[in-house]
Write a structure and sequence with these properties.
Layout: H1 23-27, H2 30-45, H3 47-58, H4 65-68, E1 69-72, E2 80-83, E3 88-92, H5 99-118, H6 127-140, H7 146-151, H8 160-176, H9 181-196, H10 209-227
Parallel strand pairs: 1-3
Antiparallel strand pairs: 2-3
GO molecular function: metal ion binding; metalloendopeptidase activity
Pfam families: Peptidase_M76
InterPro entries: Peptidase_M76_ATP23
Length: 229
Amino acid sequence: GEEEEDDFGYRLFPDRNKKPQSFLVRSLFTFHNRCQLMLRMTLETNPYAQLLLEAMKQSGCTVFNDRHFSCENCDGCVSGGFDSATSQIVLCQNNIRHQSHMNRVVTHELIHAFDHCRAHVDWFKNVKHLACSEIRAANLSGDCTLMNEIARFKFGLKGHHQTCVRDRAIRSILAVRKVSKETAEKAVDEVFDACFNDLEPFGRIPHSKTDAKRAYRDFQNRDRYNANL
């Protein structure tokens, strides 16, 4: 039969097409309350998120908690997503159960939002654009830290970080686009070097929260320096 039309990953986020629930209904679900509490903690205390929020504000894209984040139920295989049509970050309240996981998901999706803010990203028709943002998100969000890779029982020495970034970028593309693995791999490989080395707004690969704190401090100092020129 004829291949089903690509829904651009919206099948993974069924709540996207539902009418918003009333506050009373949402307050009855502990998943939603827990998601909101963890989100607030991330935005207030996580240096990865704080740097990205400041960078987006500097780029003219101020992020508001109630407007740009939505805790929803999702398909079991995803933790979050960036809906460019509404400029909203979807947080999968049924799949995010720990604060550290929330920190990574928010950071990952904020990198997509930052890319959406600063560049003309064709999310739906140009798989190379999607691949580039997925590479950056995997590289800069902490997805591929040593501890996270050990938790996945994946070990490596030289070049392991790059391997993790490549693999996770391909997985992310396959999760939201109906393309072959070969197509996803080709897109990632063609843009990998340029996008892996694009470290904005961090200026470095933040391999730990300490690195992220330094990057945030450097970003703030860079802004102060530029303001004095």
